[in-house]
Each structure stands twice: as structure tokens, then as C-alpha cells.
Amino acid sequence: MQHLRSVTCAINHAGTRESCLDYLATVLANDIKQNDIVLMVLLDGAQLYESKQSDCWMYVWIILNLSPDKQYWRVHVWPGDFIPGLNKPKNLDSFLFVSMHHLAALQKNGLMIWDASRNTVFTSDLYFLFTSADGFGLIYWDGMVGHSGKNGCHLYCGVRGRHGAGETGITKPLLILSLSPSQSLSVPYCMTPDIIHLVGNLSDLLLSLWHTTIDCATADNPAT
User: Fold this and answer.
1) Which of 9, 160, 186, 213 has its CA 20 to 30 A from that of 69?
2) Measured between alpha carbons, how far is 169 from 176 in angstroms, rounded to an integer?
3) Residue 196 Cα distances to 57, 180, 205, 206, 208, angstroms
4) What's the pLDDT band for 46 if we cut at 50, 70, 90?
5) How many angstroms from the chain centroid is the CA of residue 165?
6) Is 72 helix (H, G, I), strand (E, B) or coil?
7) What is the secondary structure of 163-194 as a DSSP string?
8) CA–CA–CA angle 139, 197, 164 (5° rounding)
9) Could you tell me which residues come within 8 angstroms of residue 112 by beta carbon, excluding any fewer than 6 positions away?
10) Strand 55-63 versus strand 37-47 pairing type
11) Has this prediction a pTM greater than 0.85?
């Protein structure tokens, strides 16, 4: 029960109430056991220099079994890969594939762990719970058309986007479908929404607009 409380608390921080209920259902179904490791993967891009093109991408693994006050410590954040720029990679799946293939192999064979405190060796199964990224990065996990599609967020929020020519909504097969169904939260429940950028970007844009400090073209007037 202590393990259940710890991971449930971590998921309450990482996801939504529905995500927490999905997790509890997998525990009750015995898909997640006492010695198993619960994982979340985070993908994001970064511009290294402010005033020149320097795009790079990276993804990391988070162990959700740890309590929320420890799981984001640097020592507990495991690098998946670093993809250098200067331009955005044309085939990001080729970089994600390495880690996902390794995870699939561990799910098939199990991860042997030596517990030094008890001098025992046990097998731990790896359970894949969440993918996480911003709105631009989520398309690499969910295979959707992204913010340029008619339903950009795919969460049925009612906000319509701009439908691009030839875009059907699904752009590719998903890497995460290669994982064990009994050791991963199913699609689309494993896809987390990009709430942090929604709140952060909207507040920044609205506040700068209301205070007439928003960046705009030279031909525009911030006051109007």
C-alpha cells in the first residue's frame, strides 16, 4: 500500500484524475506489481542561443515510483538521447527507436536487479505509463497532425485549427504500439496534454497585450 500511495501521488502531479484512475486499474489487474518500475518519458526541443539558429532535441526518462519531491532530481532523471541541431531532425523516430526498442526488450525478458540490503536477485517488469511533450513534440508520440490540423489538441476542446491540405489526422504508425500491451498504458490514455505551455503562453501573451508591451511588427501599434 505504501508503494501504491507513492506512485499514485506522483501520478497526481504528472497527469490528471483520469490518469490516476487508469493507473489504479492496472494495479488492481496486477499488471503493475510491487517490484515493478513505472516510467514516463519526456521529449522537448531547445534553442541553445537566443539570437541564432541552434535547435536541439532531447528526451529523458522519469521513474514514477519515486516520490514527487525526489523524482525530478537530476540524479534520478535518466537521459534517453540528445539530438543536436542546427535544424530540427527530419526523422525523430530514428532517435526515439533506440530507447523504445530497449524498453520493449526489457519488457519481454524482465530486468534483473540485485537488492544488496537483502542479498537477493529479483526480476522487475518495466511498466510504461506516460509520454510527455509540448504541443509541438506530442505529434512524435501520438502520430497526430498536431496544431496545424482541424483538431490540433485532439482533446475535443472545441477550438478549431487550420486544416492543411492532404492532412488526415493520423500521420504515421506509433512506436509505443510495439510495447507490451500488459506493461504499458494504452493509447490514447498514455498521452498527456500540454497544459503547462497553455497556461504559461496564454498568460504571457495576454498580460503583455493588456499592458501594451507585446512584441509586434514595426507597422503595428501595441496600443491598438
Assistant:
1) 186
2) 18
3) 19, 29, 14, 15, 18
4) confident
5) 28
6) coil
7) PPTT--SB-S--GGGGS-GGGBPPTTTTBPP-
8) 40
9) 121, 122, 123, 124
10) antiparallel
11) no
E strands present in 69-117: 77-83, 111-115
CB of 108 closer than 8 Å to CB of 180: yes
CA distance 56 to 133: 14
The β-bridge partners of 88 are none
Q: CB–CB of 101/95 below 8 Å? A: no
CA 36 to chain centre: 20
Q: Give the range with max mean pLDDT: 3-7, 64-68, 132-136, 147-151.
A: 64-68
User: Nearest-CA neighbor of 71 among 149, 115, 6?
Assistant: 6
pLDDT for the residue 47 = 77
Distance from C-alpha of 38 to C-alpha of 25, rounded to nearest angstrom: 14
CB within 8 Å of 181: residues ≥ 6 apart: none
> Which residues neighbour 12 within 8 Å (Cβ) at sequence distance 6 or greater?
20
The residue type found at 1 is: M
Amino acid at 146: G
